[in-house]
User: What shape does this take?
Amino acid sequence: MVSTESAQPPYARVKQFLKDGLAAGTWPPGAQMPSEAELVARFGVSRMTVNRALKELQAEGLVERSQGVGTFAARLHRVSSTLTIRDLHEEITARGHVHHAVVHLQRAESAPAALAAQLGLPARARVFHTLIVHHENGVPLQCEDRWVNPGCSPAYLDADFTRTTPTQVLFETTALWRAQYTIEAGTPTPEEARLLAIPAREPCLVVTRATFTRDAAITLARLVHPGSRYQLQGEFEP
Assistant: This one.
């Protein structure tokens, strides 16, 4: 009788070994994984076979690869769940379209009591605030109103948000542990309607998202998308 493992194609055995290790926590988020040479030696397969396994894991969002450096377990935000909300720049460019951002606000402020409490900070504590409208092929697609805990990302306000996004900056500079979000249908505030160039009562998809390290809140964001221009997509695998 042929075992299930021996019946698998060689690349699938390599891939399953790495997936099992990721699931077991052998390589925590950000940890370097075995090199191609190590996997070739371990499984007695070609480098092409190993490369195929790694490419498929990368396509599934489970690993990140850096040429000349190695393969790393994906950070938490890269690992698929029942719903994945990607960075908007990546989402737009994946469609072959052009993304650009207009920064309307980028400054430090004193947090009102309610906001400070949501970020786990004292009332009137200093927080970072950005208000950015993201465009797809010149059309406003998302109004992003975001507050950031300076203790988690001290250099946040130094970023050029016409060249990168707040999501990218925070993924690269903070130790993301968990996220919470709510999704609802709603109408924009007068300012959001003006910035998005839509009627005041146009239905919108409103996402409120908070992210956390192990022991602190990183950010709280309100993301408003005109309902006629945006479709939220996700994927579920039992």
Summary: Residues 15 and 56 are 8 Å apart (CA to CA). The chain has eight helices and eight strands.
